[in-house]
Structure prediction request, 210 residues.
Amino acid sequence: MDVILSFLIFMLFCVDYYYVYYSSIGNNKKLNESQKAYIMSIKSSMTLFLLSIFFNIKYFISDDFNSNDFIVIHLGILNLIAYFFMDCVIGRKEYNKYLLSLSGYIHHIIYIVVSVVCIKLNIILPYILFLIEELPTLILSLGKFNSNLRSDNLFGMTFFVTRIVYHIFLIMMTYNYHIIIPIVGTLALGVHIYWFKNWLNKYTLLFKND
Prediction:
């Protein structure tokens, strides 16, 4: 896809995230800062998870991709970049303290670079497969936005299955596309294991207290 066209589409996605965020808080004045921090995350993680599910199934069943598939994948990654960008831009004003952790500004900037590099190197197919790992993000975001939807067990289970077990499997299946995949994949795996360890320790402590 042409660079200028890609940039224009990226800008449209940015406008879309801007509209979704401000229309959401405009329609519900009672949202607190924590809830606001997860509005765009819900939209992004749901979109990318559903796209990735489709392409994972297609990859392992037929491995038959046409030009239209790659256009959709490209659009999906542009959407992801737009989310990271707008979360930083809007978040700096609206919920800055929620972006100061490792999963905030640092994570977003790193993955903007990773996403652009994958587009540049034309390895967007294996990249979209890994975005199935947005499932625990979706579950976490929904739980943060609405406490009635919170499920620590479901989050922990999906995190372990997608971001550790399936992540390792995908590295082994796609490492031959480009050297960057096993490198970034292994680094990401280390972070995932670290996050899961922290979550497990916290969850175990809460369970003991109960």
Summary: The CA atoms of residues 117 and 123 lie 9 Å apart. The mean pLDDT is 94. The radius of gyration is 17 Å.
